[in-house]
């Protein structure tokens, strides 16, 4: 298993309302597989803390683990990760970042610029593409680094 875990929470519909918290892993063949799930009454910091504590116990993860989490910024997840695993990296799903951009600017013209940036294979290429993004639209660039911090962006500004 790679040190990369995806976290998500989804609503349950039907006669038994609640939330399903889940975590998936990525294996060496880039296959995604479920690791754990829990059914909770509501998605909040306390339920995420409990879920992450159970996950840490099951996977023998410690506060200084070097895992990277990716999520969609679920309610209460960010403070729960910071509390349980203060040393892990936490990143956000790019597809959801783009969807949020589309809601704000109501256009698809940024999609190609954004995907070019994230497909960069070296830091200098990434920084060059981010400079191009900034020259294309400063307001969108500032929104991107304000709400979705990405390593290296502060050096470009």
The helix tally amounts to 7
Record the strand order, biggest sheet: 3-2-1-4-5
Percent range for β-strand residues: 15-25%
Q: Radius of gyration, Cα only, in angstroms?
A: 17 Å
Query: How would you classify the helix and strand content by structural class?
Result: alpha/beta
Q: SSE string, helix = H, strand = E?
A: EEEHEHEHHHHH
Largest sheet features: 5 strands, mixed
Features:
157 residues; alpha/beta; 5-stranded mixed beta sheet; 7 helices; 5 strands; 45% helix; 22% strand; MULE transposase domain-containing protein; MULE_transposase_dom
What do these coordinates show?
By secondary structure, the chain is α/β, with parallel strands linked by helices. It contains seven helices and five strands. The chain has helices at residues 45-59, 77-84, 94-105, 111-118, 123-136, 138-147, 153-156; strands spanning 4-12, 18-26, 32-40, 68-71, 89-92.
Overview in brief:
This is MULE transposase domain-containing protein. By secondary structure, the chain is an alpha/beta fold.
Please give the structural blueprint.
Blueprint: E1 4-12, E2 18-26, E3 32-40, H1 45-59, E4 68-71, H2 77-84, E5 89-92, H3 94-105, H4 111-118, H5 123-136, H6 138-147, H7 153-156
Parallel strand pairs: 1-4, 4-5
Antiparallel strand pairs: 1-2, 2-3
